[in-house]
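We emphasize that the prediction below concerns an isolated chain of 135 residues; any contacts that depend on oligomerization or on bound cofactors are therefore not represented. The input was used exactly as deposited, without trimming of termini.
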Amino acid sequence: MRIAQRVFRYVEHELYNYDNTKQMLEQYKESILESSPGLQEVAVQSGPGDPTAKKALQLVSSAFIAHAEQTIQAIERSLAMLTEDHRKLFKLKYQDCLPWQEVMIELGVSERTYFRMRRELVITVAQQLGLINIE
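Result of the prediction step, given as a token string:
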């Protein structure tokens, strides 16, 4: 199956930034939950007057939170579907940022097998993100 180069690059970008995305998501959620309520509005309110309700609304309506959670879940579902060697490849290449030659040596696989596994990982994540459809 062919995958567009821009999709491949986008998915690899998300794989490289997986840990950062998780960290930013937690910080963002924490900042919303720990933010102090603003001045209580005395006049007509356009939204919920309850500070807890405002925070809940922010959490469920944030585009960043929705995108980050979708990406994290897609990567985690993909890793669960693939083999242990794929998970090792993910850790070594995308989390530890080792060059492909070192990843290949660590996994004990040929160059061809390394690139096949990387492609399988990227395609699976792209499918989980809804970027490609394989029937």
